[in-house]
Amino acid sequence: MQKQKKDTKNNKMLEELVVEIKSVVKVTQGGRQRRFSATVVVGDKNGTVGIGIGKAGEVPDAIKKAIQAANKNLIKIALIDNRTIQHEVVGKSGAAIVLIKPAKAGTGLIAGGAVRAVLELAGVRDISSKSLGSRTKLNMATATINALKSIKTVEEVAKLRGKTESEILG
């Protein structure tokens, strides 16, 4: 299920991808309350991506809430040649661990499930990934976002070390 939506702030076209819809039940004294939980990934395929969760009594309402939450949680990542990441990173969320490595041009997107959805909408085209620990879709997507947040560019590393970019690159 994929749609297109226009972000009014930045005038960018953001794509949405529903990663998971599940039924959740809250047991009360009066009986069971059934609701739906949706996990959605939003991105522009050009370095901007976000993830959101929404819960409601109906599926479409849960998806709308998740999209709104994802638009609030957008992050920007720096891509090399608009295709891969700067360096190898590890992201964690709960018991889920995601290892992401940059790859040569033409390798493709070697990832599965929620990790693939996040990386596709971020605009990454050449990458290799490995999922460790828990395989929960929400935790895998969040771990991928955490990994992408931890990427540092050459400029950031040079600034932290008090050196020039050429000294870092050797």
Verbal overview:
The protein is an alpha+beta fold. It has two domains: 2-75, Double Stranded RNA Binding Domain (2-Layer Sandwich); 78-157, Ribosomal Protein S5, domain 2, CATH 3.30.230. It has five helices and nine strands; from the N terminus they run E-E-E-E-H-E-E-E-E-H-E-H-H-H. The protein has helices at 59-72, 113-122, 137-149, 154-161, 165-169; strands at 2-7, 12-28, 31-43, 48-56, 75-76, 89-93, 96-102, 109-110, 127-133. Helix 2 (113-122) links the parallel strand 8 (109-110) and strand 9. The N and C termini lie far apart (46 Å).
Low-confidence stretches: none
Overall number of structural domains? 2
Mean pLDDT: 91
Provide the helix percentage: 25-40%
* Radius of gyration from CA coordinates: 18 Å
Query: Spatial order of the strands in the main sheet?
Result: 1-2-3-4-5
Calculate the terminal CA-CA distance, rounded to whole Å. 46 Å
Question: Mind summarizing the main beta sheet?
Answer: 5 strands, antiparallel
Name the structural class: alpha+beta
Provide the descriptors you would attach to this structure in a database record.
single chain, 170 residues, alpha+beta, Double Stranded RNA Binding Domain, Ribosomal Protein S5, domain 2, five-stranded antiparallel β-sheet, four-stranded mixed β-sheet, 9 strands
SSE layout and pairing:
Blueprint: E1 2-7, E2 12-28, E3 31-43, E4 48-56, H1 59-72, E5 75-76, E6 89-93, E7 96-102, E8 109-110, H2 113-122, E9 127-133, H3 137-149, H4 154-161, H5 165-169
